[in-house]
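note to self — DONT lose this again. spent like an hour looking for the file last time. sequence + predicted structure for the chain T wanted, 164 res
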Amino acid sequence: MAPGLPTPEAAPLMTPPWMAFPLIPWGTLGWRMGLGESYFLQWQEWYEPLSEHAKQTYQLEWPEREGWLGFYETLAEGTLPAWFFDREQLWQAAAGPITPDETLVVSYFRVVWLVRHVLELVQEDELEAGEVKAAICAAPDGSRWRFSCSKASWLTLTRLSPAT
């Protein structure tokens, strides 16, 4: 590294792709064009020159979440995890209308599927401790849901009101 230039570790921290764009699944077109692609390329340029120690520390601070398991290994080894090829089945299992017994949804694939195909964003919501994104959504049955993305519990949908 040239004298006077900051080390990669001194560069401002970038959150991992799944936190910056929680509704873009790993490996989809959203990471190969538009805002997802731009962010991912910037993140890679920031992450790749980090020392092995800095990468390990980062990985402990930002563990992979459901739908992203094996991501760091893929970066290091250049191979995709086995589950990656089976995820179409995970999306099919997540599809379907909201059921009356669903009050808290924490499965990554189910949350993303509902937000993309069923729920409509009503308004951004005030962030609670540890959250990075939050919104109120409406379902076709009249129920209200709170979508949140936090570092600790990842993506969550919580039913706020029953169907009308």
